[in-house]
Amino acid sequence: MLDPFVRLLLFILPAYVANAAPVVLGGLFPIDGGRRAWDGRPYLGSSKTWLGLAGGLVAGLLAAVLEAHLLIGTPYDLWAGQGSWYLLTGLLLSAGALAGDLLGSFAKRRLGLGAGQASWLLDQLPFVLVAMLAVLPLGVTFQFEPLPLAALLVLTVVLHRAANWLAHRSGLKKVPW
Ligand code: CTP
Ligand code: MG
Questions:
Q1: Which ligand 1 atom minimizes the distance to the CA of 123?
Q2: Pocket residues: Cβ below 6 A from ligand 1
Q3: How confident is the model at residue 144 (pLDDT cuts 50, 70, 90)?
Q4: Mean pLDDT (whole number) for 151-174
Q5: If we measure between CA atoms, which residue out of 149, 153, 56, 136 comes closest to residue 95?
Q6: Which atom of ligand 1 lies nearest, measured to the CA of 53?
Q7: Taking the complete model, does pTM exceed 0.90, yes or no?
Q8: Smaller CB count within 10 Å for the chain: N or C?
Q9: How many CA atoms lie within 13 A of 32 on its CB side?
Q10: Which pLDDT tens digit goes with each residue over 46-100?
Q11: Probe ligand 1: pick from 19, 23, 168, max atoms within 8 Å of CB?
């Protein structure tokens, strides 16, 4: 159980990094440009920015490169020594994480929650779910065993809460979620 879970964590890491990086590498150039949807509320809100997307993508890719350097040649090598697979999955995981985060914010706005307002599960899960969907076309299956997957979702909620609390405490984020 532990080994598949560790591999799953290593696999998903670029998505975590891409989701976290915009807190420090984002904040400029709102994607929705302040425009409002049919319900009169913002499409995404001021927290979702182009700079955040760019920063998240670069950081997620860097995480993938770092993993390739550290893991190839060890028992935790995820892709049989193939650096290009680290890059490709890292790219898809990062893009998926960022897209999932936008989807979560879009859903929050439609529910009438303002940017930065807390929402259980919509704050923590869309990024990781869409990241995993994004790699499905590659035919990658090892990470989708039910038990490690369930554990990953629980851990993601806990880690996301903890990371955001820390980011708030250290002055990086206005709200602790
Ligand atoms: N951020 C960004 N671009 C993104 C995502 C995040 O610039 N695509 C930055 C913003 O500065 C944002 C911070 O990262 O304030 C934290 O992101 P998040 O917690 O997702 O934003 P919230 O303020 O909670 O907004 P929402 O209610 O839409 O989740
Ligand atoms: Mg949030």
A1: 29
A2: 22-23, 26-27, 45, 47-49, 51-53, 101, 105, 108, 115-117, 123, 173
A3: confident
A4: 96
A5: 56
A6: 8
A7: yes
A8: N
A9: 18
A10: 999 999 999 999 999 999 999 999 999 999 999 999 999 999 999 999 999 999 9
A11: 23
